[in-house]
Amino acid sequence: MILQNKNAVIYGAGGSLGGAVAKAFAAAGARVFLTGRNVQSVQVVAQEIIASGGQVEITQVDGFNEQEIKKHLQKVIEMAGAVDISFNAVGVDVVQGIPLIDLPMNDFVTPVTATLQTRFLTAVAAAQIMKQQGSGVILSLTATPGGIAYPFTGGFAAACNAVESFTANLASEMGIYGVRAVNIRSGGSPDSRVFKEAIDNNPDVMAGVLQKMQNDTMLKKLPLMVDVANLAVFLASDFAGKITGVTVDVTGGTTVGLNYRAE
């Protein structure tokens, strides 16, 4: 129970990855405060946590609304006394599969702006509280294009790079107050909702896509949601107490170098 007595706030907890991390935090002993625009999807995650004996609270919070975010964090302080962990898994729509030279400007810029907006608002609100506490961990999540050129990813690649840069700079400013900021770079989990929906809608196309993604990794395996969640638990714990200002890669080695030629 390496997160025993820790209070973790998860934004976008109704999503597949947000939910996976929330359940992993709870299983590790944390009291989790789940938020999302869609309370129904968050409730499903909460019920699973309760069934497993975890501690959970639910609040409808728009991860793009500064006042709602701050109001909720004050509620957490009143209920639990501290905000130890903040993790943002809010989803943003992205147009991919189109060459940059054919991509409308708004389709490129919008996901970058939206991704940074919600990450900035939640991270800064948590950091302000953690500064006063003298401790805390702020986690974020990106994907393979944040670490290596990946064609036809549109504004998603730029958004990933921006989040990783923001995380490093936030860590550089907050470290003197005992606050850590770490980013997780995933390779795309085939068991996540977005992949499952794509597979259901286009099974033949996705079979080839997933095979190519697996071939790009050094392990020839894509990370599952549990791999991302387990890493999040470790990084939020005291075992990672000296890790900050970096992106920890869980892409199976893809961002070190494309490995499709290895057999």
Your description of this structure?
It is a single chain. With 263 residues, the protein is an alpha/beta fold. It has a single domain (7-189, 224-254), classed as Rossmann fold (3-Layer(aba) Sandwich). It is 47% helix and 16% strand. It has eight helices and seven strands, in the order E-H-E-H-E-H-E-H-E-H-E-H-H-H-E. It has helices at residues 16-27, 39-51, 66-80, 105-133, 155-174, 193-201, 203-216, 225-236, and strands at 7-11, 31-36, 55-60, 85-88, 136-143, 179-186, 247-250. Strands 3-2-1-4-5-6-7 form a seven-stranded parallel beta sheet, with helices on both faces. Helix 1 (16-27) packs across helix 8, helix 4 (105-133) packs parallel to helix 5 and helix 6 packs across helix 7 (203-216). It is globular. The relative contact order is 0.14. The mean pLDDT is 95.
Supply the CATH superfamily name.
NAD(P)-binding Rossmann-like Domain
Which strand order do you get reading across the main beta sheet?
A: 3-2-1-4-5-6-7
Q: Just name the CATH architecture.
A: 3-Layer(aba) Sandwich
Calculate the mean pLDDT score and round it: 95
Roughly what percent helix?
40-55%
Largest sheet: 7 strands, parallel
Provide the gyration radius in Å. Answer: 18 Å
Annotation field: number of helices: 8
Q: Structural class given helices, strands, pairing? A: alpha/beta
Strand runs, count: 7
What is the first-to-last residue Cα distance?
A: 40 Å
- The shape is globular
Task: Extract low-pLDDT stretches.
Answer: none
Please report which band the strand proportion falls in: under 5%, 5-15%, 15-25%, 25-35%, 35-45% or over 45%: 15-25%
As for the CATH topology, it is Rossmann fold
SSE succession:
EHEHEHEHEHEHHHE
CATH class type:
Alpha Beta
Total discrete domains: 1
